[in-house]
Each structure stands twice: as structure tokens, then as C-alpha cells.
Design goal:
Helix content: under 10%
Largest sheet: 5 strands, antiparallel
Radius of gyration: 17 Å
Number of helices: 1
Distance between the termini: 31 Å
Shape: globular
Length: 189
């Protein structure tokens, strides 16, 4: 078993890491965590909200969101990047590929939420949640506060297809594929 978590920082406004811990005894004990990706204090970059999955060929696939501008001169103006990043590991998290940018739809800021799933056909799927960017809210204050999208990769996390909107006003979606065509999902409103 493998668990990804945010480590090395408080909940907000600080640079963090995303770390992995492994269990060989069905969760009774866990390894010390080791860092997969790290934020950058000097550039005020924070990595957060990991989503972890395993591709059909056994690679670990880790996605995360990026926030910048958390320093003392920027309190309250931190901004999500208009993309997320995905990295892959062929050696159980010892080394990682270069990040692949996964763009958010135009005018939105998103971050992964929850577990990445591998469907029966090998497709990787994860949920991303967020909001419209500040310019869109200024132009249309009636836009929903929260938005949620589903991302799919058909090649083990190397590339990601255009996301599917789950619904305006929704966030933090969890889902389970029951079979090839039927899913159960729950959303936060």
C-alpha cells in the first residue's frame, strides 16, 4: 500500500512537500515518509492536494496543485497556478519523471481532490476542484463559488484529455466506477 500526503508545512500559506509512505502489512505499520515533490520558499511556491494512482503497467502516478504568493507580503493574495502537475515513478517513488502540466479550463483554477482511480481498461481518472479566477468573478459575480472537473489519461499519466465538467456549484467529488458504464459519485455543495 502507498499513501501520499502533504508534509512539512501548515495548512495554508507555507511551502510544503508531498510525501509517500508505504505499508507491506495491509496498513498495520508504515514506512517513514520520503519526499516526492517539494515547494520552494524563495519563490513562494506551495505544492498541495495530492492525488495518487497506479497505472496499468505498475507505475506510480502522482498529481498535485500549485499555489504561489504565500509570503508575508502576499497574505491573502495567494493564487493557484492555471495548471496542475503530474509526475510518474517506475521504481516505487525513488525517482520521478519531469512534471507534466495538466491545464485547467480557461478562466479557472483547480487542484486535485481525492484518489486517482484506474479503470478496468487502464484509464487513469482523478477529480479536480476549484473555482473561476478573479477576473471571471469580477465580470460575472453570479458564477458559482465552486466547480469540479474529471480528468482522464489513456496513456498511464503521460498526457491528459480535456476535462469533463462535473457540475457548477460542486466540489470535492468522490467516485467509484461500478463497471464500464456505471459510477457512484458524491459531491460537496
Amino acid at each position: 500500500m502507498c499513501c501520499a500526503s502533504r508534509t512539512g508545512a501548515t495548512h495554508r500559506l507555507s511551502p510544503s512537500e508531498i510525501s509517500l509512505s508505504f505499508s507491506a502489512d495491509r496498513g498495520k505499520s508504515w514506512s517513514n515518509y520520503h519526499i516526492a515533490v517539494r515547494g520552494d520558499i524563495a519563490r513562494e511556491i506551495d505544492v498541495r492536494n495530492p492525488t495518487l494512482g497506479q497505472s496499468a503497467d505498475g507505475q506510480l502516478v502522482l498529481g498535485y496543485g500549485i499555489v504561489e504568493g504565500f509570503g508575508p507580503n502576499n497574505v491573502g493574495v495567494e493564487q493557484h497556478k492555471p495548471w496542475m502537475e503530474v509526475i510518474r515513478s517506475v521504481d516505487d517513488g525513488i525517482t520521478w519523471s519531469k512534471p507534466v502540466k495538466v491545464p485547467a479550463p480557461a478562466g479557472t483554477t483547480l487542484s486535485p481532490h481525492g484518489q486517482m482511480r484506474t479503470l478496468a481498461d487502464g484509464t487513469l481518472v482523478f477529480n479536480a476542484r476549484g473555482s473561476h479566477d478573479l477576473r471571471r468573478y469580477a465580470a460575472d459575480p453570479g458564477l458559482p463559488i465552486r466547480i469540479s472537473y474529471l480528468y482522464r489519461s489513456y496513456d498511464g499519466g503521460q498526457t491528459w484529455a480535456e476535462p469533463t465538467a462535473i457540475g457548477d456549484g460542486t466540489s470535492e467529488t468522490g467516485f467509484l466506477a461500478l463497471d464500464d458504464t456505471n459510477w457512484v459519485a458524491y459531491v460537496r455543495h
